[in-house]
Amino acid sequence: MSVAAVSRPSRTAPPGSGALAWLKENLFSSLGNTILTLLIGLLVVLALPPIVEWALVKSVWGPAPSQVCKEAEGACWAFIYEKHRLILFGRYPFAEQWRPLVAMVLLFGLIGFSCFRRFWKGWLGAVWAVGLVLFCILMWGGLFGLSYVETALWGGLPLTLILSSGGIVLAFPFAILLALGRRSQLPIVRAICVTYIELIRGVPLVTLLFMASFMFPLFMPHGVQIDAVLRALVAILLFAAAYLAEVVRGGLQAIPKGQYEAANAIGLTYWQATRKIILPQAIRIVIPPIVNSFIATFKDTSLVVIVSLTDLLLATRQAISDPAWRPFFVEGYVFIALIYLVFCYAMSRYSRYLETELHTGRRKR
Fold this sequence. Notes:
Layout: H1 19-26, H2 31-57, H3 66-71, H4 78-89, H5 98-114, H6 124-140, H7 156-182, H8 187-201, H9 205-215, H10 228-253, H11 257-265, H12 270-285, H13 287-300, H14 312-320, H15 329-357
Helix pairs in contact: 4-7, 4-14, 5-6, 7-8, 7-10, 7-13, 7-14, 8-10, 9-10, 10-12, 10-13, 11-12, 13-15, 14-15
């Protein structure tokens, strides 16, 4: 017996959907929004063509002498071609710059590997430990036939990544302990954590960097020296941990009291309840502000230029100091701005992905 196919009538889109409805709802919903949209559109129309003409149409690409750039009417991207190794690797020995490049690829691989939930296992810590050991061997050398390179010669993007990733990874568990300590029932523990958080949050990062770089060595015994990069890393870690602790504390306070009572009812100890029930929920709630703190920490690493560490910003300034290429400082700053934008945007997008993956918040239907 053959069954005749039943044709279903095509469904029309519900009222209020489509591109025109979206434009009306988001850009022209009121008189004020309409005026603001038109002003921004006018600004884009007026500003975009000259920027495109300067950056793309009349610009100089590829290898070219500085004199050619001076005669051109557009951007001189030949400056980036000429100085990209100094900008990206600082004063690291020229012949050994393949090592920081491989080290960065290794670090990116570890970060990318850790972004997938299916790899969040106990062995992930061991993978990171091995990867960081290889990273240090590549940067420092002194083993496997690699020449030793002191940290005073480190610079550029590798140094920025070391300070930012190291500060973020090490500050996060410290921040959790501070947040738990601030909510502790023990007065001494609570007082210590509150004092630390308020003291660190009450001073700028520049102050901590100056203390770590110039004041702290004065209190060390004669002949004892601590690496300058390590001192800056500790200062960034302490600063980031204080702000992250308040973010985590906000998540802890958002957990309903019934969750604590339920954990006590089934006989869990304080640390078991915190590790298995309270802390996972609290961190899920505050994923956006946590990532916002991570982004702020990544950008704040540019302040180490004040204590003479050759990060990405100082390396660009050193490249611009060449008299032949000094007029093209705008191109150098645009280049590193794009690097910061890529990293910060990647962290922001991963935050959105993680919120969806962990089912935080309310999804739009």
